[in-house]
Amino acid sequence: MLISTRGRYAIRLMIDLAENDTGSYIPMKDVAERQELSLKYMERITPVLTKNGLIEGIHGKGGGYRLTKAPEEYRIGDILRLTEGDLAPVSCLECGAKPCERAGECRTLPMWTQFKNIIDEYFDGIKLSDLIKK
After folding, report:
1. Which of 12, 25, 24 is nearest to 131 (CA)?
2. Cβ count within 10 A of residue 77
3. What are residue 66's DSSP bridge partners?
4. What is the assigned CATH class of domain 5-131?
């Protein structure tokens, strides 16, 4: 499976924050209810998005999360790479993978490399703003 629930839910979370942006922080329980997702699971996704500056949050009364940038400044590929780790279709193309001893003779490597490039270009060509209700 290329994209896990973690990546899919992160995108849904980001879309929800964009669509419900009033300038104030949005409680994650509201996002979870609207998206019909587990609050506990959403709370496991928000730290990676916060740590990498995609969203910001505050705790306590009036707390919640909000986007740090305009929706058109987010590429879906960036969100997926943060939550999925990598979008490589095969392990030898994953970021930080040990160079394969067979790379020089591998007849399928060019195919997998081209496929990875297609995946990256596709998801990097979609902005969060493309997915929100106009």
Report:
1. 12
2. 17
3. 56
4. mainly alpha
What residues contact 115, with CB distance under 8 A and at least 6 apart?
89
Closest CA to 108 of 121, 95, 90: 90
Which single residue is written with the structure tokens 């003779």? 105
Q: pLDDT for 81-104, tens place per residue?
A: 999 988 888 888 888 888 888 888
Evaluate whether 86 touches 94 at the Cβ level (below 8 Å). Answer: yes
The pLDDT tens digits for 22-54 are 889 999 999 999 999 999 999 999 999 999 999
Q: Residue 123 has which token pair?
A: 């998801």
pLDDT higher than 60, residue 1? no
